[in-house]
Amino acid sequence: AKSGYTIHIETGPEKPARMSWTAWPEGRRRGAPTETYSSGFAADGSVEVVKGETTEVAEFIDVLHQQVGLPFDHEISMPIMGVISLLYAIAIFSGVIALWPSLVKDLFALRLGKNLKRMWLDVHNVLGLFSLPFHVIMALTAIVFAFHDYFYGLQNIVSYDGKIRDMFEANEPLHHVEVDPNTPFLSPADLIERMKTNAPGFELIELAYTFNRDGTAELLARGVDEGYGHRGPTFGLAMLNPYTGEVMSAEYLPGRQNGWGATVTGFFALHFGNFGGAAVRWGYFFLGLAGAFLFYTGNLLWIETRRKKSRQGAEVTQSRSSHVLGALTVGVSLGCIAGISLTVASAKILPGLVENPAAWHSGVYYSVFVASVVWAFIRGAARGSVELLIFAAVATGLIPIVSIASLVIPGLGWNHGGAGAIVDLTAALGAGLMLFLAHKTSLRIKSAPIDSIWHAAGASIEAPQVAPGVTTESAHG
């Protein structure tokens, strides 16, 4: 801990001790394996140091999200993600403009009945329109994240004559102090009281001390202020003087930023939803589910609508591109759900069993994801969707099952309740919903027209001759 340590204001299952520090056994670099140690007092009052058996599942899912699932280096994946986000934004705006008259006309027309395609289209349109601001925010902020370095690089050439780094350093306030071995740091309790005066509303959660090679020290305070957006995923930042508690840099301190800093933080806050407390986060969660639903239903509805428009009084043969799009939609969507679910479930067991949990997380996810996509191509969109929905439900159900098993079988895995119980409950509900969807999809397959993407065979091979004016489309469309 000679290079630095962190003091946790509050402890819990994820932070079992007041003090922790990180070591890099293979050298400090991006993506290098780390070891986390915690220090606290044992029952007899002695100091106890414990090496944490941590899992990097949260970091893995975060990177997976940032790189839209691409298994490439970060520098390669991010521009690709940016292009995808740009196309996503264009598709959103063009789709709304093209369909605006019919969207407004049918906005509250949820036609529930035998025509399932009409019902799904109505649900798709309502969800899409009401969640439009959220998806626009996600698309535009993702573009900013993806091309963040390129924007600054262009500014460096056009506006700063290659000296943008000098500009940043000139505007950056001093945030480190000389270490005085004869003077103790201000206690955490005193720092909390000083921050209540210097930044009312900013609640400290961590104090991270860093000792530099030049004999200086830095104190990075992490905290939250629900009245503002945060620069970090779930926290704001302030650089403090460890001896006096003085705020040395408020560049990322909620409510104390300048106009430019607050604008940049706004992009992060809008993307992460790290303002307004739990209500906003749950709102983002459900809006994210709506986005996944829109992607899944939108592609399949487009295939069905294309089939209907191609009819000339007879069944049509679905094109190869329709088969590919249907299989990809089913395989990618459900494979992603199953892969992440199994990765989260395995995270409760892996740290005590394997040397490198991070590699296992990657292996579990991509194995399940690729296998699901291949299965969707082999079985077709219709049959594959039912089977993969059941598989994804089982995978998601394993999250609470492993937690319960860990209570019954000591030493099996990790289960400490708290926020983890909410994850387990949400996973159980999600598994039940997917089983319900699998049942409804199987019923849909049994009654689908032979030329529908939902027919068990996927599509008709040869269009039979039908008398002019006679339609073979069932009530299900």
Describe this structure in words.
- With about 475 residues, this protein is α+β, with helices and mostly antiparallel strands.
- It has three domains: about 50 residues, no CATH class; about 130 residues, no CATH class; about 170 residues, no CATH class.
- It is about 55% helix and about 10% strand.
- It contains twelve helices and nine strands.
- Strands 1, 2, 3, 4, 5, 6, 7, 8 and 9 form a nine-stranded antiparallel beta sheet that branches.
- A hairpin with a 4-residue loop joins strand 6 and strand 7.
- The chain is globular.
- The N and C termini lie far apart (about 65 Å).
Q: What is the gyration radius calculated from CA atoms?
A: 27 Å
The structural domain count equals: 3
> Sheet with the most strands?
9 strands, antiparallel
Q: How far apart are the termini?
A: 66 Å
Q: Work out the strand percent.
A: 5-15%
Number of strands: 9
Could you write a compact summary of the structure shown?
Helix content is 54%, strand content 10%.
Features:
477 residues, alpha+beta, nine-stranded antiparallel beta sheet
Set down the secondary structure blueprint.
Blueprint (H helix, E strand, L loop, with lengths): L3 E5 L10 E5 L11 E7 L5 E5 L5 H10 L7 H32 L10 H15 L1 H15 L1 H11 L5 H8 L5 E2 L9 H11 L4 E9 L4 E9 L11 E5 L6 E3 L9 H14 L5 H33 L9 H28 L9 H52 L10 H29 L30
Antiparallel strand pairs: 1-2, 1-6, 2-3, 3-4, 5-7, 6-7, 7-8, 8-9
Helix pairs in contact: 2-4, 3-9, 4-5, 4-8, 9-10, 10-11, 11-12
